[in-house]
């Protein structure tokens, strides 16, 4: 592995993914983590205890001066903002991060979020991914004035297995579209955090789009695994064909009810 980066900022460090990324970064002995959050009381003791190598910065994600203070002296910035907040925040807050990178001479920016293959989509194709598409194009096409051109890193790791189980699997039933045998790419929060940290400390790691997955599976296989591990039966609830799923997506997009009507 190449020489480790010295200072790495994690924006959204108190979130589930941000916390894990910061924890893995601290496993590399010469790495200093700048954790940025608006809720310092949520920083776990496991991070704040390392006063020599974990530096906490508090402020608003949408105020450039606050963000610049956190990024000062960093070579790399990792965005771990929660995509469940709202689309406008995900776009506006990331633009502020990128502007701060430009102003502070930060050379690499890890964009959020880390799931789905959104670079091939256009805004409106899948509303939940619109912020990522906009940020992808913003970095690619932006006319920045800094002396160091910030290089984007887009880690695409399939779907969070934890989110997949939350949306589609309840206590005694599982909803699915298609046959249930369609292959999905999955990664856990833990493995995405570990992979992100390893890429971040490697100054010679490639930039741009980096595809990664923890494992592949399908609905039927996951159901069988849960039934075996938990020793309980799960009822599979057929929602319709893949073509019908596409139709439901289009209807939900028009009605503004994508999350409510399609995912659950």
Automatic annotation (TrEMBL):
Family listed: Belongs to the NmrA-type oxidoreductase family. Isoflavone reductase subfamily.
Flavoprotein among keywords: no
Domain NAD(P)-binding as annotated: residue spans: 12-121
Protein name: Putativelike family protein
Keyword Ribosomal protein part of the UniProt annotation: no
Gene3D superfamilies from the UniProt entry: NAD(P)-binding Rossmann-like Domain (3.40.50.720)
InterPro entries: NAD(P)-bd_dom (IPR016040), NAD(P)-bd_dom_sf (IPR036291), NmrA/Isoflavone_reductase-like (IPR051609)
Superkingdom to which the source organism belongs: Eukaryota
Species whose genome carries this gene: Phaeomoniella chlamydospora
This protein's UniProt keywords: NADP, Oxidoreductase
UniProt-recorded Gene Ontology molecular function terms: oxidoreductase activity
Matches recorded under PANTHER family: NMRA-LIKE DOMAIN-CONTAINING PROTEIN-RELATED, NMRA-LIKE FAMILY PROTEIN
């Amino acid at each position: 592995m190449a020489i480790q980066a010295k200072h790495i900022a994690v924006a959204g460090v108190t979130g589930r993914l941000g916390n894990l990324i910061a924890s893995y970064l601290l496993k590399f002995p010469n790495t200093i983590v700048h954790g940025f959050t608006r809720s310092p009381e949520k920083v776990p003791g496991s991070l704040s205890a390392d006063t020599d190598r974990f530096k906490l910065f508090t402020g608003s994600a949408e105020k450039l001066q606050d963000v610049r203070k956190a990024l000062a002296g960093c070579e790399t910035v990792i965005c771990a903002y929660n995509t469940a907040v709202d689309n406008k925040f995900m776009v506006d807050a990331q633009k502020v991060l990128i502007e701060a990178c430009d102003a502070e001479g930060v050379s690499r920016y890890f964009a959020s979020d880390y799931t789905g293959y959104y670079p091939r989509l256009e805004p409106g194709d899948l509303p939940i991914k619109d912020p990522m598409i906009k940020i992808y194009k913003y970095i690619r096409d932006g006319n920045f004035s800094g002396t160091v051109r910030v290089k984007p890193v887009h880690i695409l790791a399939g779907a969070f297995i934890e989110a997949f189980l939350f949306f589609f699997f309840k206590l005694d039933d599982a909803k699915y579209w298609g046959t249930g045998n369609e292959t999905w790419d999955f990664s856990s929060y833990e493995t995405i955090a570990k992979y992100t940290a390893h890429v971040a400390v490697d100054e010679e790691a490639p930039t741009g789009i980096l595809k990664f997955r923890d494992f592949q599976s399908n609905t039927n296989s996951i159901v069988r695994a849960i039934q075996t591990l938990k020793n309980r039966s799960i009822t599979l609830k057929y929602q319709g064909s893949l073509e019908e799923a596409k139709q439901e997506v289009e209807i939900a997009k028009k009605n503004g009810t994508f999350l409510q009507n399609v995912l659950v």
